[in-house]
Write a structure and sequence with these properties.
- The termini are far apart.
- This protein folds into two domains: 150 residues, A middle domain of Talin 1 (Up-down Bundle), CATH 1.20.1420; 150 residues, no CATH class.
- By secondary structure, the protein is mainly alpha-helical.
- The longest helix has 31 residues.
- The protein contains ten helices and no strands.
- It is flat and about 65 Å long.
């Protein structure tokens, strides 16, 4: 059985990207459930109205379809986890990362069940989306590591650049959190007409305007910081002025697009389709942010400090040159 599941590095790399794609798309469909007012299309979990299939109706169909897609995603992540242990070139670091994928899907399913049981309470809905962003971290990292042979990427000696991009990732996560708060206070509760759904009301009737402004402020800081770091890298690397395929460049473009889309949707009173597109672009932006962090790589040892691998190489070369006694 193990021999049947033994795959080479290229096949495993492709499997990890399929998992990354599936865990990204499931966020899109989950947002569609909420923004189509189908969040309680199946008010019971894991069954729909106590049955294994949904009743006739648009909202139950949309909600149940998302649950089925989540099940397919769970199978994909489970297969990737198994393949990580049966592949020919076993790598322990990737095997442990692969295990987090199905665990993340299970955690999402459990949290989704509580979200339905609590009638789409804003805290649970916010947590549901943010957990999706967290699950994407090991998923992307697994695909990234599977792309390169072990030890093929050297550590980055530009320590300030590494720390700046990592700090940018934290600011990006803060922007995502503020965005979930704005959505939780907005008109798209996730339930259809006639269902009473709790909304975020920490600032009373002005909560939506307050949340949108907080989100806009943090997003503006993110945009300015991205431009600053992009210019900082251009100055230090002395590379091409604009590289459209560089993650920081793509990140800046996406943040600008998000800012424009967010402003327009606010002026148009938050139409559902535009909010859905905003959520999808936010997810893509987060994946590109992870790409930017990965592209900068890990920190090289400080000047004058040799890494363990470098020391091992020096010792090996020295021992080969020592004449036998």
């Amino acid at each position: 059985m193990r021999e049947r599941l033994a795959i080479d590095d290229d096949q495993f790399r492709k499997a990890t990207y399929v998992a990354l794609f599936a865990l990204t798309v499931i966020v899109f469909t989950g947002a569609a459930v909420r923004l189509s007012d189908s969040g309680l299309g199946c008010p019971t979990w894991p069954r729909c109205y106590g049955k294994v299939y949904p009743p006739v109706g648009l909202h139950p169909f949309i909600e149940f379809s998302n649950r089925m897609l989540a099940g397919v995603t769970g199978v994909i992540t489970g297969v990737v986890a198994v393949l990580a242990f049966t592949r020919r070139n076993f790598r322990r670091d990737q095997a442990w990362l692969a295990l987090t994928l199905p665990l993340g899907v299970v955690a999402q399913a459990v949290l989704g069940g509580f979200t339905v049981r609590e009638k789409l309470a804003p805290g649970f809905v916010m947590g549901h989306f943010l957990l999706s962003m967290v699950v994407l971290i090991p998923t992307f990292w697994l695909a990234w590591r599977a792309t390169y042979p072990e030890g093929s990427r050297l550590r980055n000696p530009d320590r300030p650049m590494v720390w700046l991009v990592r700090g940018l990732a934290l600011l990006c996560m803060a922007t995502l959190f503020a965005g979930t708060a704005a959505t939780a206070a907005g008109p798209h509760s996730g339930g259809h007409v006639g269902q009473v759904i709790k909304r975020l009301t920490i600032k009373g009737p002005n909560t939506l305007e307050w949340a949108v402004h907080q989100h806009g402020t943090v997003a503006a800081f993110l945009g300015v910081a991205t431009v600053f770091i992009w210019l900082f890298k251009r100055r230090r690397k002395r590379g091409p002025a604009i590289d459209p395929y560089e993650p920081l460049t793509m990140l800046g473009i996406l943040i600008a697009a998000q800012g424009l889309l967010g402003s327009v949707q606010y002026e148009l009173k938050l139409p559902g389709t535009m909010v859905w597109l905003h959520v999808c672009l936010a997810t893509v932006t987060w994946v590109v942010m992870l790409w930017a962090v990965a592209e900068e790589g890990s920190l090289a040892p400080p000047d004058g400090v040799e890494s363990d691998s470098a020391i091992a190489t020096i010792v090996a070369e020295w021992s080969q040159n020592v004449p036998a006694s």
